[in-house]
Specification:
The structure is a single chain. The chain is α/β, with parallel strands linked by helices. It binds adenosine-5'-triphosphate and magnesium ion. The site of magnesium ion has 3 residues, from helix 1. InterPro entries: AAA+_ATPase, ABC_AA/LPS_Transport, ABC_transporter-like_ATP-bd, BCA_ABC_TP_C, P-loop_NTPase. It comes from Dactylosporangium roseum.
């Protein structure tokens, strides 16, 4: 995959494949092109080269809504919830992509509509249980603590019933206890029929959860292997792990922003 902004090559040759049940991490220093790669996969950016295939179908350059409805869900590096909506409604909003409700049923509040609304609420509650949300589900999403909001965003992405789930720095801004719970959640997502791709700076988490790791540096893929292989790769050590302290600083900074 390739993506250019003006003359800047944000993504300059990234290739990976991921299957259901796999957990793959994309790592690399700040500005390496990780989020840009997610934006290409999800249709937010149009790649200037290469292709994105979902179960054999070419989805390159389709609109974000079209890509989402084919089963690609994501979360954002900077949380994007509907702050004024309740927690539950945020998750139900994720599901409306696939619940094909009849507009007339909705208008007339037919029994069929009410049943489907009830089922949607039950399912949203199950996903909130799955991510371990503790906060008030009827509260406006923006009133929840940051770590809880991140869980709501993951629940919303899961409620869409994705085949491919992309999480952009899910551990950013979380405290130690929340990171431990996130690790457990990621393992449980790995047991669903979902291909999981993670962008993450927290090396401890990446090394524990990933089956495979792809390393980007200045848009270029410099390594692709198991955590053990990547950990020992000299190019990775130079480009990334040598700067691990910086990455930790960045995470700390993000945390202090919250
Ligand atoms: N919309 C845009 N317009 C112009 N340049 C962009 C745009 N989005 C990203 N870039 C550039 O593309 C490069 C890759 O950015 P990207 O956000 O993908 O990095 P990243 O690996 O996600 O970094 P971080 O770890 O800090 O989130 C950077 O040089 C960035 O400035
Ligand atoms: Mg990013």
């Amino acid at each position: 995959m390739h993506l250019e902004f003006g003359g800047v090559k944000a993504v300059d040759g990234l290739t990976f494949a991921v299957n259901e049940g796999d957990i793959l991490s994309v790592i690399g220093p700040n500005g390496a092109g990780k989020t840009s790669a997610f934006n290409c996969i999800t249709g937010f950016y149009k790649p200037t080269g290469g292709s994105v295939k979902l179960q054999g179908d070419d989805i390159t350059g389709l609109r974000p809504s079209a890509i989402a409805s084919r089963g690609v869900s994501r979360t954002f590096q900077n949380l994007r919830l509907f702050g004024e909506l309740t927690v539950l409604d945020n998750v139900r909003a994720g599901m409306h992509v696939r619940l094909r409700q009849n507009a007339l049923d909705a208008l007339l509040h037919t029994p069929r509509f009410r049943r489907s609304e009830r089922e949607a609420t039950d399912e949203a509650n199950r996903w909130l249980d799955f991510v371990g949300l503790r906060g008030d589900r009827d509260a406006a999403a923006r009133n929840l603590p940051y770590g809880e909001q991140r869980r709501v965003e993951i629940a919303r992405a899961l409620a869409r019933g994705p085949k491919l789930l992309l999480l952009d720095e899910p551990a950013a801004g979380l405290n130690h206890g929340e990171k431990v719970e996130l690790l457990d959640l990621l393992h449980r997502i790995g047991e669903l029929d979902v291909a999981l791709v993670l962008i993450e700076h927290d090396m401890g988490l990446v090394m524990q959860v990933s089956r495979r790791i792809v390393v980007l540096n200045f848009g270029r893929e410099i390594a692709d292997g198991t955590p053990e292989e990547v950990r020992r790769d000299p190019a990775v050590l130079e480009a990334y792990l040598g700067k691990e302290d910086d990455a930790d600083d960045a995470t700390t900074k993000e945390m202090s922003h919250e």
